[in-house]
Amino acid sequence: PLFQQKAAPLGKKLWQTEHYVNSDANISTIMPIAKEIHDVMVTGSANAYVYWWIPHANGLTANDGTLFKRAYVIGQFAKHVRPGYFRVEATATPATNVYVSAYAGNGKVVIVAVNSSTAAVSQTFTLQNATVSQFSTWQTSASANMAAGSEASVSGNSFTFSLPAQSIT
Question: pTM of the entire structure?
Fold first, then answer.
């Protein structure tokens, strides 16, 4: 990307701000936001994704504070990828319609997996240069909003996890 060619050598940071995406409470119209954040962070090598419309019809909340589904999608990244974390190498598209990014910081590893397929996907993850015994999981899907999920046990630096259809884990 142009950023890597021009700005990165100068020590500049790239922040991507949101733009209008036709999205409502329907998970299938929300999934492009998750894919966009993945692309911005992985392909674009951005340092941040900023969503600045909070209470607004296209924002994260209604005027009464009710969270829209898009807030939970963004939250899948924002809650777990904290200041000071860095993106680390991951197979960005390990399966058709599955997008993965990984981050490390504060002695933790965060993997964000987006399954935009209409079917569940059993995905194997292999960790390198990290020792992890288990992961806590959180999912946003058609029926869940950043809901705590099952623990993922790691054996020999590898684990397999089922990613529900149209979900962010």
Answer: 0.88
